[in-house]
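Try this one yourself first.
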């Protein structure tokens, strides 16, 4: 609409005038992906965070990702369009839960998915993302791992590494967007698009993963169609990827596994609040110094294992 076009122009002007770099996750609405200097998956965004020179960043995604940016760039000003964009899966784990599991399994390293709060990261030995969880866990010198908060990613890692994965918090740790995909959804999608390959995120259940041709993070999903000659793909992740994939692979077709694959919190970022955030330079991410110092350790341990 005309109003949206006007907002987009105003955002571009303000971004230039105030000198912000905009980083966006692959799940934000297409207009915001287009306004971002860089879009990526959680690992790509965390890595980039260590390389950005600009000290003013507007982050579009959910709060645990913005916190990771802050942990890696404590002296930079990091703002978000809304403080209300949170991840229910990240919030399912608390420092108290981690401490109680640590008491029970004192020798098991704690590996936390980056989808976790900064307070929880401060108690972890390593972080991982969906792109490197298998690699990180396989490189850790222990056969038993406390892993959370995603029980589905945990079961995927257990399957691939053969290690004993103890899920923390347990049954309540999952992403509602991906956990919602069912075997029935896969069956229906395959019936509708018999020539398509199915790609899902590892946050999906084992029953669903077992029926699919490729499992990967959103960043890995961006690479798979290039390596595979198939022309049609069914995508089992948040709907934001259905914008990014066809833009990159113009001669291939992409269908959502389910129309309802929407992360409400990612969608809280919109043109209006992005404009306001740049105008007022508000909603700054701040974390206690002690949390930043402690949470940085498992993130750096992840980077070290990947070298
Ligand atoms: P990616 O690391 O694949 O981008 O995943 C982030 C996320 O929140 C998935 O739900
Ligand atoms: Fe959290 Fe799921 Fe949204 Fe990712 S898609 S931010 S895991 S709720």
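Now uncover the answer:
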């Amino acid at each position: 609409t005309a109003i949206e076009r006007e907002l987009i122009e105003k955002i571009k002007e303000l971004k230039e005038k105030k000198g912000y770099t905009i980083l966006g996750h692959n799940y934000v609405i297409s207009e915001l992906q287009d306004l971002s200097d860089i879009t990526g998956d959680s690992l790509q965004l965390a890595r980039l965070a260590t390389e950005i020179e600009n000290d003013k960043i507007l982050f579009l995604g959910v709060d645990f990702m913005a916190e990771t940016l802050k942990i890696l760039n404590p002296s930079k000003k990091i703002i978000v369009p809304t403080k209300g964009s949170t991840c229910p899966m990240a919030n399912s784990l608390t420092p108290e839960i981690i401490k109680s599991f640590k008491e029970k399994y004192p020798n098991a390293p704690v590996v936390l998915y980056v989808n976790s709060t900064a307070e929880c990261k401060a108690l972890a030995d390593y972080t991982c993302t969906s792109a490197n969880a298998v690699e990180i866990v396989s490189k850790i010198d222990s056969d038993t791992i406390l892993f959370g908060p995603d029980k589905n990613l945990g079961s995927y890692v257990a399957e691939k590494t053969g290690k004993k994965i103890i899920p923390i918090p347990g049954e309540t740790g999952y992403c509602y967007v991906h956990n919602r995909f069912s075997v029935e959804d896969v069956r229906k999608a395959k019936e509708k698009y018999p020539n398509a390959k199915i790609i899902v995120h590892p946050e999906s259940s084992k029953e669903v993963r077992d029926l699919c041709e490729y499992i990967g993070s959103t960043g890995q999903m961006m690479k798979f169609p290039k390596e595979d000659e198939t022309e049609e793909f069914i995508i089992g992740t948040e709907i934001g990827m259905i914008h990014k994939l066809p833009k990159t692979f113009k001669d291939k077709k992409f269908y959502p596994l389910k129309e309802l694959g929407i992360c409400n919190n990612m969608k809280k970022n919109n043109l209006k609040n992005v404009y306001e955030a740049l105008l007022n330079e508000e909603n700054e991410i701040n974390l206690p110094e002690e949390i930043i110092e402690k949470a940085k350790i498992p993130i750096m341990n992840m980077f070290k294992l990947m070298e």
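Discussion: The chain has three domains: 2-85+266-280, 89-175+289-306, 181-256. The chain has a mean pLDDT of 96.
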